[in-house]
């Protein structure tokens, strides 16, 4: 039997590996912008479903059981969104504002702002991925198995980021080895975040776990609106809403059928 902490790390590594898979596809077989945007829209819908039912609802349940009420959930949710927004703003100044965007114009704007924004792109991926990976680790705490919907959602949100960032780095003149080692390292950190997320909160009070889930949910929702929805709309236009709803419904069905 694989220890739960190791299982958490492996699930986190799987979701983070989408960055490397996307980078490979973006380097060797670039997909059309419309296809990337459609994946982004679908992934946004899946993530919204996951944070609604797997995170916020679960955070509310834990907080209620602990007698803490709504306040920790609300403060955590707003705090997670505020923290992500501040970090995202800082990274935008460094050249990672459009890290999930596939349009060449946006990548060119970032590259012009900073001659070498590879580090900013990697930090942006970590900003997006660490809260998600911690959530994957926390989902195993009750021994009911991993939150499969959360894993799928994170995987789908990482794919387009790997695609677009690899294309941008290729345009910068980066070598393939550098790009793939970079995204491989980020994927490894995602796995470690899930691993340590489980270890850090194993045995923690339900109120604390609820707050952590709410913080992650707020950060993820802010990330969706700031980085995923704009690309989905620009690439698919009037179909973006339908694609996102399809992703939401798919995740909702998976979460209920898995019960």
Shape from CA axes? globular
Secondary structure: number of strands = 0
The percentage of residues in β strands lies in under 5%
Which structural class do the helices and strands define? Answer: mainly alpha
Number of helices: 9
User: How many strands, which pairing sense, and closed or not: the largest β-sheet?
Assistant: none
Radius of gyration: 18 Å
Q: How would you state the average pLDDT, rounded?
A: 80
Helix content class: over 70%
Order of helices and strands: HHHHHHHHH
N-end to C-end Cα span: 22 Å
- Any low-confidence stretches, pLDDT <50, length ≥5? 104-116
Any descriptors?
259 residues; mainly alpha; 82% helix
Structure description:
With 259 residues, the protein is an all-alpha fold. Helices cover 82% and strands 0% of the residues. It is built from nine helices and no strands. The chain has helices spanning 4-28, 33-65, 71-94, 104-113, 118-138, 148-172, 176-201, 206-236, 240-257. Helix 1 (4-28) packs parallel to helix 6, helix 3 (71-94) runs antiparallel to helix 5 and helix 5 (118-138) runs parallel beside helix 7 (176-201). The longest helix is centred in the first third of the chain and has 33 residues, at 33-65. It is globular. The model is unreliable at 104-116 (pLDDT under 50).
């Amino acid at each position: 039997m694989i220890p739960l902490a190791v299982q958490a790390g492996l699930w986190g590594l799987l979701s983070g590996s989408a960055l490397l898979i996307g980078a490979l596809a973006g380097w060797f077989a670039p997909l059309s912008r419309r296809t990337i945007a459609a994946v982004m829209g679908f992934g946004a819908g899946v993530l919204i479903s996951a944070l609604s039912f797997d995170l916020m609802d679960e955070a509310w349940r834990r907080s209620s059981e602990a007698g803490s009420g709504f306040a920790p959930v609300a403060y955590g949710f707003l705090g997670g969104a505020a923290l992500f927004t501040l970090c995202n703003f800082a990274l935008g100044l460094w050249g990672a504002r459009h890290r999930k965007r596939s349009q060449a114009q946006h990548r060119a704007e970032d590259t012009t702002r900073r001659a070498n924004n590879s580090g900013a792109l990697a930090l942006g991926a970590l900003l997006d991925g660490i809260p998600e990976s911690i959530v994957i680790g926390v989902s195993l705490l009750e021994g009911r198995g991993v939150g499969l919907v959360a894993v799928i959602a994170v995987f789908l949100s990482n794919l387009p980021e790997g695609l677009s960032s690899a294309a941008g780095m290729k345009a910068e003149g980066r070598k393939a080895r550098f790009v793939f080692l970079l995204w491989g390292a980020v994927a490894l950190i995602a796995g470690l975040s899930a691993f340590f997320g489980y270890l850090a909160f194993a045995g923690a009070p339900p109120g604390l776990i609820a707050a952590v889930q709410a913080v992650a949910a707020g950060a993820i929702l802010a990330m969706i609106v700031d980085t995923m929805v704009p690309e989905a709309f620009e690439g698919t236009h009037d179909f973006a809403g339908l694609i996102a709803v399809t992703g939401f419904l798919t995740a909702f069905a998976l979460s209920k059928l898995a019960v």
